[in-house]
Amino acid sequence: MTSSDVRDADPRDAGSDGWINKVFLMWHVSFAVLVVAAVASLLGDVDGWLVYALVALLCAAYAGLLVPCLARDSLRLGVGYLAVAGPVVLALGYLDPNGLILLYALFPQVFGVLQARRSRLLVLVALAAGAVAVGLRHEELTTAVVQVGIALLVSLLIGTFTQVIMREAERRGRLITELEAARADLDEAQHQAGVLTERQRLSHEIHDTLAQGFTSLIMLIQAADATVDHDPAATRHRLALAERTARENLAETRALVAALAPVDLQSAPLDTALERVTARLGEELGIPARVRIEGTPRILPPDVQVVLLRSAQESLANIRKHAAAGRVDVRLHYADGVGTARDGSGTGVLLEVRDDGKGFSPGTAGGYGLRGMRARVEQVHGTVDVSSAPGEGTTVRVEIP
């Protein structure tokens, strides 16, 4: 166990923190038990104040240098502790061979203080050699080597085990930190995507409501201005249409601000809403405009109704601005036997808007309105098909499966 392992382990990881506390507790308890055992053995064989002084010095160094070293990752304190503890343990072993029992505590502490392998190996070899030399005062060489070797082997096992635990704690801490960073990045990306989607939705709503309404108002006012001198009745009729369009546009604006469904759908089902917006176009342009409903009408999911109505409004707005049409036909076809699922899947509906205007060459159209229509329809997994040719009118088909 190294102090850097303790420092790097993420304290928010309750599992890692628990392991660290358990390892520290094991160290402290082991040290206390070994000190008590050594003192009990030494006091039975050796008299004098020197034993008390050495044991007190070792405990003071442990409390004042090693514990702060592990808590604050201070190499200077750790080296200072080893500089005190090594000679003290060897001195106790010189007084009595039982004093070398403290090597079982000192060897693992070397692992906890020294991070560099070379420094750690040099200190372990020096301590082991000193312990063997001290042991020769009381035992034969073989016995001294075996006793020190056992202590060193046990210490190596304990040190390796604790290091593996601490490295795993460090790895888990880094992994949790990376996961939290990745989650924060994902949350931010989702937030930005939501903001972008909402902006696109609002831009489509504004285009399909306010922009089209203002365009209609401009055309009606211009037409009224052209007849104000010689045809007061037509002028009044167009001004009445302009007033109604303005009021409806204001209602759409309020609904948009309140994030509600289109006004036409609030007061009537989709079929009636289509008839209303189509009839309004016919009145404005003074041309025949009709709606044909095919199949068995049914209640569609709200998002599908909004998409179909907005698509019809965009198609009619394009006719108003560009087509110079003499007739407009809108067809809403409900596919029989489709769309009976409880979750609203399988809508099975087709919207077709056809005019006999001047048309255009394929590939020359693709403004914001058409792009917005395609985006709306794709959100409900539908398709948009626009067919036209110069002089042959235009047909817009929106199909939602």
TrEMBL record:
GO terms for molecular function: kinase activity. Its cofactor is [4Fe-4S] cluster. It is an enzyme of class 2 (transferase). Keywords: 4Fe-4S, ATP-binding, Coiled coil, Cytoplasm, Iron, Iron-sulfur, Kinase, Membrane, Metal-binding, Nucleotide-binding, Phosphoprotein, Transferase, Transmembrane, Transmembrane helix, Two-component regulatory system. Residues 172-199 form a coiled coil. Its EC number is 2.7.13.3. It is found in: Cytoplasm. The chain crosses the membrane at residues 24-43, 49-71, 78-95, 101-116, 121-138, 144-166. Residues 201-401 form the Histidine kinase domain. It catalyses: ATP + protein L-histidine = ADP + protein N-phospho-L-histidine. The keyword Transferase applies. PANTHER family: NITRATE/NITRITE SENSOR PROTEIN NARX-RELATED, NITRATE_NITRITE SENSOR PROTEIN NARQ. Member of the two-component regulatory system NreB/NreC involved in the control of dissimilatory nitrate/nitrite reduction in response to oxygen. NreB functions as a direct oxygen sensor histidine kinase which is autophosphorylated, in the absence of oxygen, probably at the conserved histidine residue, and transfers its phosphate group probably to a conserved aspartate residue of NreC. NreB/NreC activates the expression of the nitrate (narGHJI) and nitrite (nir) reductase operons, as well as the putative nitrate transporter gene narT. This is Oxygen sensor histidine kinase NreB.
